Amino acid sequence: MVKNNALKSDDLSHFSENNIVCQLEWLIFKLFKNTKKYQCYSKVYQMTCIISITNTLHGLVSEGYHATLRDIFYSNPSLYKKQTISNNTIAMITRLIRIPREFLNVVSTSKGMIRGPISVFGSDLSGDKYNRNKIIEFDCLSKIEGMGHSISPYICRLMNNWRINIYKNISFVLIIEKDTVFQRLLECNFLEAFNNSCILLTAKGYSDLPTRALLYQLCNILPYETLFWILCDYDAHGLTIGATYIMGSQNSAWYDSDFKVDRILPFPLPRVADQLANGIIHKQSIFQLSKSNIVRINMVKQRFENCIEVSSNIRAQWIKICEQIMLDGVEYEIDCIEQLENWVEEVIKKKLASINTDELEDHKEYSYKYSE
C-alpha cells in the first residue's frame, strides 16, 4: 500500500504566509495607533520592544528566512538588554496574533526523532522564497540513519508543501517518551520484529510542536485500523506528556496550535503488584507517590473527564490508567522494566493478535473522521 497525502489546505490556511504577514502588519499598525496613549516609561518601552520584534518577524516571514530566539535577541541587544525580555515579547506576540512561533520562522533545536517505512518529500523552503525549486526527499527507514531521523523544526511551515509517502501497511504507531527507550528498541531491531510495519516516534520528553505536527499529519493519513500508543513513565509526568499529545499544551506563555492527536491510547501497563510478581520490575525501582504528584495526576484525570472532544473510549482508558497509578500509590520510570525491548514486543504482539471485529468497530467509532 502506498499513501501520498498532505493536510488539506484549509486546515492550515490561518498559518499561510500571506495571512501571517497581514497579521503582523495589522499588529504594527495597531501598536503605533495606541502608543500615544501611554505616558509611563515601562509601557512605552514594552511597546517599542513589541514593534521592533514584530518588524523582525515580518522580515523573516516575508523573505522566507529563519532565526532562533538567540538570533532575535542579538538583532538589537541594546534595546532588549536581556534575552528573557525578547523571549517574553515574542511569546506575547504569538498570543496577540494567535500564531505559534514556529510559523513565524522562529525555530529551536530539533527534538523529535522518527523511524519507520515512510518518506517525506517536497520543495526546499529553508532558503529565501525566491529559490525554492529544489526538491528534497528523505527516507525515515534509511540505513544511513539507522537510529532515527530528526524531525525538522521547519516542518510546521512545510506541511502544505511536503508529502508523506507510506510504503508499508502500518499496524501501529508507538510514541515513546524517552530517547533512551527509543534507541534501545531500535538497537534490538524492534521494527524488523514487526516486518517494518510500524512507526516509532519520540520527542525526547515533553513534545514540541514540530513533533506533534508530524504526528497530526500521520493521524490524518493512516486508516482507522492503525493503533496509536504512547509508552511513557508510570507517573504524573508521563500522564502529562500523554495528555499534551491528545489535548494540546497548557503552557500559557506561548500560543500553541491545535495539532492534537486524540487517537492515542496509553500503553497497556499492568498493576504494579502484578509486575512485581512476574519479575517485570524490581521493588527498588518503584517509589511512593508524593502529594504533589497525586494532585498532578488528578488534574490530568480531570482534563480527560472534561474534554468532550476526545471519544469516550479513549477518555475511559486514560482515566483508568490515572486511577490505577493513584490506587497503586507508587511510580516508576519505564526504562527500569526488565528486558524492556522483549517485553514491549511481546505485549504489542499479544494485543494485535487479540484485536477482533468488535474492537475494530469500537476503534472505527472514534477514528472515523480520520479515514475520510
UniProtKB/TrEMBL annotation:
Keywords of this entry: DNA-binding, Isomerase, Magnesium, Metal-binding, Topoisomerase
Spo11/DNA topoisomerase VI subunit A N-terminal domain sequence ranges: 46-106
Catalytic reaction annotation: ATP-dependent breakage, passage and rejoining of double-stranded DNA
Active site as annotated: 74 (o-(5'-phospho-dna)-tyrosine intermediate)
Cofactor dependency: Mg(2+)
Domain of life where this protein originates: Eukaryota
One example of a Gene Ontology biological process annotation: meiotic DNA double-strand break formation
One MF annotation (Gene Ontology) recorded for this entry: DNA binding
Domain Topoisomerase 6 subunit A/Spo11 TOPRIM stretches: 172-264
Record carries keyword Signal: no
EC code: 5.6.2.2
GO CC annotation terms, alphabetical: nuclear chromosome
Top-tier EC class: isomerase
Homology family: Belongs to the TOP6A family.
The protein, known as: DNA topoisomerase (ATP-hydrolyzing)
